[in-house]
Amino acid sequence: MYPVLRMVKGMALAALSFPLPLTGTHVSHHICWPWDLDIWMELNNGRSLTLYDLGRFPLTMRTGLAGMLRRRRWGMTMAGASVRWRRRVRVFDRVEMHSRCVGWDARFLYIEQSMWLRGEAASAALYRAVVTGPSGIVPTAEVLRALGMREATCTPPAYVQDWNRG
Questions:
Q1: In order of start, what are the domains of the chain with their CATH numbers?
Q2: Block means of pLDDT (10 residues each) for the chain, length 166 residues?
Q3: Cβ–Cβ < 8 Å for 134, 101
């Protein structure tokens, strides 16, 4: 079941936080609850992707992306994802999540997220996001103009470009 109450809490906290630039980092904190576990008593891999939602959605709020998408009746879809797990997250562990847009190209925004457990990386995810409207994919330049970012460029880092080609 989707963690609706956790999402509402995250969105409320984001609404009370200061705005971020599109490439700003949103930091959030989460607890691994018993219902987040798999049969090996650690954070379920599917649930970790859901927890990444709990960081990504507030990021879009704080950057102004969510409001702009809503006003224009556009949506944002994940068009690719890659996740790496490094440390086991167990019941009642508290993780710190970092979420940020690391760049864009003509079609996609690239969002990097990581979970930290006691100061060490527990997992990381790289997402390729696309904005869609009634006519299909909205070019990134149009999305940036709608955000008031004229002539904005932010070439994704080399590791993102390599991932995107692969």
A1: 4-165 (3.10.129.10)
A2: 93 96 97 97 96 97 97 97 97 98 96 98 98 96 94 90 87
A3: no
